[in-house]
Write a structure and sequence with these properties.
YbdK, two-stranded antiparallel ribbon, 370 residues, Putative glutamate--cysteine ligase 2, ATP-binding, seven-stranded antiparallel sheet, ligase activity, ligase, alpha+beta
């Protein structure tokens, strides 16, 4: 068997262990963390964030070990500033770090191009990379992934609070991203040439910064031979990131097989897909939303069972079926991250409790019970 390697990126807020607010210490924390993990850690859009990324991994056990080690290294680097890495899609409480721009030319160019739209663009995501060396295959595989993206939003939803208030949504991060003209689900494409014409036209329209680097939720990465899936909130628990990575790899491998058999993917209606995204962002798990292929309103649990049936052979091939079924049991028992955040708040109606719980789980790594 030829192994399809995987990698994951997780973004975290840097939160004061006393203040529980986001603090602008990214440059200092990244410099300290790099003494341990080198370039597997980097800054992010705001100085109140950092990102860790695994090297390519052959299996999800290795991926989880890497994620846990990287979270530990980030936590160790935070300690000198009385901070901790906090895995949530949006900041529960604000702070100065939520508005201090990171030092990167692309971030400054984004502010010049999109202006006030970026004022509250304080979000943390989980990205999954799956090795797909042929770009033509990768862009067509994305067609097959499009209908499943809203379900991944519901499964990973972990951003109900934004700077001190309950938004009423499970994934406010998804709502923030949806306002931009070239974020969210990628369009259906007929070929790599079609994809490149679209991205070039969008760059010329100034709807995106760089035709080689669109911010769609699925894209062939321009620097490494992977298909990158960017739809998910960062989970508080690394075990959930590993399980979602397993699901995404299975989806991609299944899609690649179908593309190589001549199937370019379903032409899912863009408006229906947009509605499915919104419903998943609002309700999270458990909840219901449109099945993007049929338009029928189905519980996310039913949609997840359909996904499991769809990719079971690939999950079995890579030994990931047990990890994914354990993740689905956790969702059934405890809900998505948004439900868990609200459960923390409900104990004493204190958002500081939510932050404390997130800091604790982020720091522990992959320890969720089945």
């Amino acid at each position: 068997m030829t192994t399809t390697t995987i990698g994951a990126e997780e973004e975290f807020f840097l939160v004061g262990t006393d203040s529980r607010t986001v603090e602008p210490a990214g440059s200092r924390v990244v410099a300290r963390a790099r003494e341990t993990v080198a370039d597997l850690v980097s800054g992010e859009f705001h100085e109140g964030q950092l990102e860790v990324r695994t090297p390519p991994c052959e299996d999800t056990d290795e991926l989880l070990r890497q994620l846990t080690a990287l979270r530990t290294a980030a936590g160790d680097a935070c300690r000198a500033d009385s901070l901790g890495p906090c895995a949530t899609g949006t900041p529960v409480l604000g702070g100065a770090g939520a508005r201090v721009l990171g030092d990167h030319p692309r971030y400054r160019a984004g502010v010049r191009q999109f202006g006030t739209m970026l004022d509250d663009f304080t979000i943390c995501s989980a990205h999954v990379h799956v090795h797909v060396p042929e770009r033509e295959v990768a862009v067509l595989a994305a067609n097959h992934l499009r209908p499943w993206l809203p379900l991944l939003v519901a499964m990973s939803a972990n951003s109900p609070f934004f700077e001190g208030r309950d938004t009423g949504y499970a994934s406010w991060r998804t709502v923030i991203r949806a306002r931009f003209p070239a974020l969210s689900a990628p369009p259906y494409v007929d070929s790599l040439a079609h994809y490149e014409r679209l991205t070039t036209a969008l760059q010329e329209s100034e709807a995106l910064l760089d035709a080689s680097l669109p911010f769609w939720d699925v894209r062939p990465n321009p620097r490494v031979p992977t298909l990158e899936i960017r739809v998910m909130d960062v989970p508080a628990d690394a075990a959930d990131t590993a399980a979602l990575t397993a699901l995404v790899r299975a989806l991609v491998v299944c899609a690649v097989e179908r593309v190589r058999d001549g199937d370019a993917g379903p032409r899912t209606c863009g408006e229906l897909l947009r509605a499915a995204y919104w419903r998943a962002a609002r309700d999270g798990w458990p909840g219901s939303g449109p099945d993007a292929l049929t338009g029928r309103i189905l519980p996310f649990g039913t949609q997840a069972q359909r996904l499991l049936d769809h990719v079971r052979p690939q999950l079995e091939l890579y030994g990931d079926l047990q990890r994914v079924t354990a993740f689905l049991r956790r969702l059934s028992l405890h809900g998505c991250g948004a439900q868990r955040q609200r459960a923390s708040w409900a104990r004493r109606s204190r958002l500081t409790d939510v932050v404390d719980d997130l800091l604790a789980v982020t720091g522990r790594g992959g320890v969720s019970p089945a």
